[in-house]
Amino acid sequence: MTYKGDKARIRSNTSTLVNESALIIANLIMFQKIANVLSIISFIMVASMSGGAYFGYKYLTSENFKSRVMKEIMGSVSGMMPKVLDQGLPDVTGPSVPTNLLPKF
């Protein structure tokens, strides 16, 4: 910076340095704002996932859920049982272990 009379003259390289510094500071401020927003979004996502997992676990281990599942299963199985029992059980059964395969002593 040089003075001639009452007017100060700023060299061009000094004004460029001031402009670059202002740009760097503005970029850092903008980055900080973006980082703050992303951290808030991240916190909201983690909190909602944790809450959802907690309430899901509580619901799955509740007696209401167990009784609902048992009613659903028993309704499906009871409709199939007479048909399965009629077709699947033999009239006559044989020995539990075939005797002709055992070695003779």
Keywords:
2 helices; two-stranded antiparallel ribbon; 6% strand; 105 residues; mainly alpha
The whole-angstrom Rg is 41 Å
Count helical runs. 2
Q: Largest sheet at a glance?
A: 2 strands, antiparallel
- Class by helix and strand content? mainly alpha
* Spatial order of strands in the largest sheet: 1-2
Give the DSSP E fraction (strand runs of 2 or more residues): 5-15%
Which H/E pattern describes the elements?
A: EEHH
- The tally of beta strands, per DSSP, is 2
Plain-language structure description:
The protein has 105 residues and is mainly alpha-helical. It has one domain. It has 2 helices and 2 strands. A two-stranded antiparallel sheet has the order 1-2. It is rod-shaped, with a radius of gyration of 41 Å.
Please give a quick description of this structure.
The chain has 105 residues and is mainly alpha-helical. It is 71% helix and 6% strand. It has 2 helices and 2 strands; from the N terminus they run ββαα.
